[in-house]
Predict the structure.
Amino acid sequence: MLELLETREVVTVVELARAFGVSEVTVRSDLASLDRQGLVARVRGGARALQREQSEIAFDVRLRVQEHDKRAIARAAAASVADGEAVALDSSTTAFYIAQELRRKKELVVVTNGLRIASALADAPGVSVIVPGGILRLPAMSLVGDLATDFLRHTRIGKGFFGARGLSLDRGLLDLNPDEVRIKRQMAAVCERVIGVFDHTKWQREALLSFAPTEQIDSIVTDAPAPAELVRQWRERGVEVVVAEPFSTLEAPR
C-alpha cells in the first residue's frame, strides 16, 4: 500500500482489495493501522498520501519502498566510484544503499548530510566520512540549515549522488522540503559531476522546488522500467542515463 502511495495521491479500498486479493475488511484494518502510525491519511473509501511538506514516511519504511530497484541503482552508481575519490551523498534512501555498496572502497572520502548514510559507513576501514553540521530533520534523519555553508564553500567534490522526488526537462532535479533543497543545492554546487539516482516512479512526478537545473546534471542512474521516451529525451540533452541491471533478491545482504 505504501508503495502505491509513493506513486499516487489516493488509493481506494476497493482497488486495494482487488490488487492484493484480500477482503475490504482486511484492507480497512490495514489502512487504520497505517493511519495510526502516521503513514497515511484516511479519506472516505480509501487513503491518501500525506502531504510530503508536512509529514514524510519514516526513513526505515521508505527504505523498503522499491527496495530492489534502489539496490540495483546503488550498485550501478557505486561502480562509477574509484578508490581515492571524494564523493557527496545526500540523505535519500537510495544514497543509503549506495553507502552500503561503497563500504569496500579504499581511501574514499564521503561528504553527507544524512545520519543514516554516515552510520552505514562509520566502520568501513577505507572510508572517511565528513558530516557538515546542521539542525536535525527527523523524517529524513538529515542535518540541514546554514551551518554547513562555510564548509561546503571551501570544498570541491568529484561526484555527487542525489535522490529526487521528481524531475523535469525544464527544471531539472526536484524535491519538496525547502531545507533539504537548500543543502542539496549547496552540495551540488561544489560537485564536478552531479548524478541523479532514482527509480522509475520518479520520472513522471513533479515537485515544488528544483535543486539542480537540467544544465547542471551530468548523469542519471535509474532502473529498467524507466520510461524509454523520457530516457531518450534526457540523452538528447546530453545527459548520460545509466539503466541499472535488475537486482536479484538472492543478492540482498543478510
Remarks:
- The radius of gyration is 18 Å.
